[in-house]
Amino acid sequence: MNHSATDMSSSPLPEGGSRGEPTLAPRGAGGTAHPPLPEGGSRGEPTPAVKDGGCAAVPVITIDGPTASGKGTVAHGVAEALGWHVLDSGALYRLTALAAREQGVPADDAARLAAVAGGLDVRFEPGCIYLCGREVGELIRQEEVGNLASRLAALPEVRAALLARQRAFLRPPGLVADGRDMGTVVFPEAGLKIFLVADVGARAERRRKQLMEKGIPANLEDLLRDMRERDARDANRKVAPLAPAADARQLDSSSLTAGQTVQAILNIWRQAQAGR
Ligand code: DC
Fold first, then answer.
1. Ligand 1 residue neighbourhood (C-beta within 6 Å)
2. Which of 68, 182, 241, 254 is deepest in the core (most CB within 10 A)?
């Protein structure tokens, strides 16, 4: 399939498209695009139905890939087109990092960090993310928070503490989940797994543009260095490293717009459905 042949949208592919712009609520679901925790606010074990990711009953598309590959924007676009919910799993790691930083928890204290992750008082609403009632959607996008999130994400205790919380996002009519291990660990039974890549130069340039638009000065060399470091840490950690699932479809978005990438994924999904 030639994904670069047609130009459908001129919008570039910033990472984490949920921030700033309105979040795309699922059609017909009447809820937020990021559903809250289940009734009772359980953060413990997932229900039996979602022990395996629960994908047999509710369809899931996973979109994994490195930082700034455009996963967030694309996940929201696919979710909007299908009328599904969306899980931005990176936001949970970023929220853990922000909360840990604010509580003065050292980045190597796995037990305390897991407690922070398990006890996050977070609420997702269209376009907004609240931590303990405070809107932190922009704050968690800071590069320092992202770098700290990547360090904490290497700790198995932190990952375990966030697993049930991520699976709790699975609700009818469907879920688009973006992150690093959505297809390998969190939703291994997903009906479609996309591994979204883009060369590091394209990703650093996207990130630079995005920061500039927010009036934040950014140096391309620094961004490239940080991105390479983060890629290496995410890909080389022992637990749930950034890697395509064996049954993932790889998609290179280096020269695609957000709209083209969304369309490419929708095409793959619809073809797969037609062939079932
Ligand atoms: O996708 P992001 O840049 O917002 O994620 C921030 C960090 O969180 C990323 O560097 C690695 C970590 N992360 C992870 O380990 N697993 C996920 N499913 C999502 C994010």
1. 16, 67, 89-90, 93-94, 146, 149-150, 153, 179-181, 230, 234
2. 182
- pTM for this one? 0.80
In this predicted model, what pLDDT tens digit does every residue of 67-82 receive, in sequence order?
888 899 999 999 999 9
The three-class DSSP label of residue 249 is strand
Question: Does residue 105 lie within any of the structural domains?
Answer: yes
Tens of pLDDT, residues 89-141: 999 999 999 999 999 999 999 999 999 999 999 999 988 999 999 999 999 98
Taking the centre of ligand 1 as the mean of its atom positions, its distance from the CA of residue 5, in whole angstroms, is 31
Cα separation of 234 and 243, whole Å?
9
Q: Which of 101, 150, 187 to mutate to test the pocket of ligand 1 (most atoms within 8 A of CB)?
A: 150
Q: Residue 171 belongs to a domain with what CATH number?
A: 3.40.50.300
Q: For residue 233, which atom of ligand 1 is closest to its CA?
A: 10
Name the residue range of residue 165's domain.
Answer: 18-257
- Within-domain flag for 247: yes
